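hey m, so remember when u said the tokens were messed up on ur end? i reran from scratch. heres the input so u can diff it against urs
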Amino acid sequence: MTDRPSQSIAPAYRPPQPELRLVLRPNAPDPRLVALVRLMARRAARDWFRSQQQEQRRRSGP
């Protein structure tokens, strides 16, 4: 084995600082808000679909 000096530890990754822009265009919605609404809609749709499947299984059950 050869003695090698230990490598310096790389600095921890730091994500870029977020930009605080409240108005991108005067007549356009905030894209972050649009993404949040889409996420919430998908989750609500999944929950509704799951409940419909469970209800269907109960109706056609033994």
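this time it looks ok to me. The helical segments are 31-60. if urs says something different then somethings off w ur setup not the seq
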